[in-house]
Predict the 3D structure of the following.
Amino acid sequence: MAKNILVAGTDPIELQDYCLQELASHTKDQQVKLTEPAFILVPDALKADVERRYLSKFDVNGLMLAEVLSFERFAYRIFSRAGGLATDSISKIGKSLLIQKIICQRPEQFKRFQRFAGKTGYSDELEKVLRDFKRFDLTETVVQDLAEKAPPSLTKDKISDFSELFKLYHQELNDLQIIDQDDNLNRLIDLLNDEENQDIEFLQNTQIWITGFADIRTFNQQELKIIKSLAKLCKKLTITVLADPNLQNKIRQEIFEPGYQAFKQIISIIPNIQVQILEESTPIEQRLLQEAILSGKLDFALADQLRADQNYELKSTAKIRLLTNEDKRQEWSFIAGEIKRLVNEENYRQKDIGIAITEEATNQSLIKSIFREFGLNAYLTDRLPIKQLPLYRYLEGFLRISNANYLFEDLLSFLRSGLTTATVDEIDTFENICLEFGFKYPDQLENQKYLERIKDQKQQEFFVDFIEIHLRPVFEVTSKMRANKKASAKAGILLAWLADDRFFLHLQNKIDELRKLEEEDIALSLAAAFDVTVQLLEESHALFNVENISQARFTEIILGSLVLQIPNTIPVGLDRIRIGSPQELIYYDCKVLFIVGMSADTFPPVDAENSFFSSKEIEWIEAVSDKTLPDYKKNQLISGLVSSAGLFSRTKDHIYLSTSNPDSEQWASLYIFVDQLLDNELSEKQDNQLNQQRNIFIKNTELLQMIPGDLTYPDQRWLTENRTRRFLNAGQQTFSKKSDEEKIIIKSKNEKELEQKFNLPESATFWYQAIQKLQKDVKTTAKKLVIADSFNSLIHWHNQKNEIISLNQTHYLKLLSKRTFLSASRLENYQACPYQYFSQNILNLQERPIWDIDYRDRGMMVHAMMEIALKEFAQAVANAEDQKSKDKVVEDWLEKIESKNFYDQLYLAAVDSSDLNTYVDPIIRVKDGTRLKRIIRSALIFDSYNNLQADFLPTHFEWQFPPHFNDEKNNLAKDKHYKSLYLINEDDLLGYRISLELNGIIDRIDQNDLKEYRIFDYKTGRKAIDLEKIFYGLDLQLGLYQRVWQHNHPKNNVDSIGYFSFQNPVDTNNKNTIYPPETARNERLIKQKLHKEIKGDTGELEEIGDFSYLKAQQSVKNIISGNISPNPKALKRDDLPCRYCQFKEICGFDQRLIGQRETIYDSLGKDQEILDQISNAVQAFEEKSHYTNETEEA
């Protein structure tokens, strides 16, 4: 028997089973049961599933003789035999707490990390970096050396901060006489390398299997050192890696790159290890799909080679199904219905089904509600962060009201956390009383003077009882906590309250209630969150020792350590559908697999989050230190590729590829490849051999595609009675048993040869029986709908197509005749969606206002600050006597705008001039004011360096047209001679004389001595100039501004028109890493493209203005005609105005029907081609107008 074995394969479940089978054989051997211990080492995330698989699949009696452990638990197990458990250690959550404490108490010792003081959520990330330093052998000395060697840069600051954090962290541990759990593996390494230690001799009779580590990542330095030592000590060591070591197959080598690198790692540290490569077990068609993820094609030639290979085991492949849905709700509804069909008709158990979600499951409630409606049980492995649980909200509210100066809103947040003893109705009544009688501050609640305001005896009794029962016990505890200055005492008081029956029993009842509601995963998460919270408070009691701390700081540290914690839970229930990420599902042995949400961005993932260090910084650290660090971003992308491919490794009965986007441009590449196989037109252009290979693939996989859409045709979404009723009501028609074949899209030549199990059968099914039962009700409902009154006499409905709506001009023109002006933005609004324009601007409908900082106020502040600053600069330049003086003014200005004091004064001046008292509020001044000042700073620096040095100076700010003669803002006499620009003038329509004049405000106009001008429109969003939008009338603003200025200043020539964007600020400090260039700031400002403009010759720009004016006039004609159809228009579906529209409920918006309403304009080509089309349109109009005038004169 070989002492050390390295097993390689491309099926992660098969690698697990290899280890478990050997482990089972070993434990069944009666002679070795007590004398030869056995361990299988797996990652923590796999432990529960591996144990369950071992007990259920391998005919063993238990785990007494075989332990499934992680490396950390294995170290603990060895210490229990060989000594080393006496030392107290700090856990992961304790480390986060200690990091919070260090930075909060000593922010001045850090260059960058001081900004984290008092903020939540950062300590987990810092803890992860420190843990990686230890795992990859970067000691405190190495980190300090890196900080000294790094040149002045952001990188140097970050490494210096980590070096300081490392030092202070170890000082704290030494003072507390505890060790870091991450040091346990280093202690284990030292123990294993101690040749004289007789306590580890038992390992000579021990067998160990290591699996699951080198699948989506490589081994780290700690793990490699442990493996190297175990290879010398153990009786037998078996290691598995997910890899294809076949050097001739580069595609598979690259797909399983982490495992291949781990394979080479093990060979290098154990040169004499025996290598065993498991035979490839992936079915041929699934293997083609697997490799297509990376290669970008389905390699049918490879399939022919594998079929001809005598050594390749030919296995039946999965049936492949494509699901194309309209949105996520329809996607999950169809999947739930199909699972119900599989369970009821094909006798699958729910545990046989796995669902891999390729994107983050942001809406778990949607998934659970749909599955509950279909009577399905599922376990979502995507665990809930503690922040989303009621326990965190309870603790947050509890700690907030522990502060002496807490707000009344904090008390209400606490009461509404979901874990207080008061019911929802009681809390509502309490809040209503407080609002009615003006209780705004907590100290008023128990003040007799304020209590006397409540005259009603019942109300007063309720109010007093509420405080006595639900708040008094809490206030007593918070008061006690506030009075105690020592952090350990505060933690002890909070621990005691959580253990008190008044809270603990209520928490238990809440967990039981969630279980009764079948919210098992939330109940488990809540219970686990309680354990995490208790662990945190117990560790804080020890870590803070006897230090004094304010209540506010204690609150920050505790909440900051909790906020990103994700409580661990294990799968429960014997028969549940498993839902998780691809990384989790590659280890779940299911017969039916759904891959959900397949898009170009998520399958495989093309983007990943960065850590504290960028890829370049990691390369520099590795080069200087000769150590290895994980590149988080790169590793996430590689693990995403491995996980995506690994889903196809295991033989399955069915694989469903599903997307929630009907737009093929958003599909994953693999989805597109399979979809193209069903494109008969494409197949006709291919050669016979390729068509034959294609047909073999379709036949073997029984490939079908379903595009659910028409709710009048029964599909899997009908498989509940309530849904059937809803769909029938929505269709307003009875169901005909005869199916409409055209409404099911199955793109396959071989559909007649295949048994059509994918579609619902036409009789003897649940939905058909339900329809028979519901038909009478539906007929009655349909009749009522037919005789219902129309929405309003103002509207004419076009019966042939209800998506077109026009207004009765007789009533409508009364509304328009009272209007005199129309702005460019409202014309754009109409062009994008007439119905939205009608609801917003004619009917003046709006949602209930919810207070927030008004974006219009923010815009006014931006305008005011820019105007005050640039007026000052323009005035200084105008007063300069000669060029030398002008140069000095510019030099002084560039120096001035770098000063932060300048922006403090500018902010106050803008608040005063715009009369926005909201921005005087200290909280808003800190929160929004700081950001505003940084935005204006970036804008002024960019403006000064890139615009103001080209002999153009600001001459007009907020030029209003038509002018208000009492407005002396610009104090220009010529404004009194303003020439109006009419969109329609004195037209007589049904007895109403309609005149609409263009109005608006041009934010800024710059001019030079040559009478050339530039028009700027300020934008606080990300709006960009797009000539296609101008051509289609979706962006008229700049063109109309140019037209009205030119109309009033015919002797001026336009130089450019553009938007000036005020986006997230660019920090003017140099933030380039490693070796920052001098021009870094200006380069970043230029790359941010704050100024988006159209430049061209004067003729082209004037034609844009003329064209925009013609488009505006056409829009006005459509408005007057009464066309208010809900037909949105855009260049891309993502840009449709429906996205943020407030009026979707009243226009009958339905995502499934949007294709019948929307207009997605075609691309027009390059900018010059669009300019030519604009020019041709203007010339054609002028020629037509000239011909009309000549005809009228004749």
Summary: The longest helix spans residues 457-483. The longest strand covers residues 992-1007. The chain has a mean pLDDT of 78.
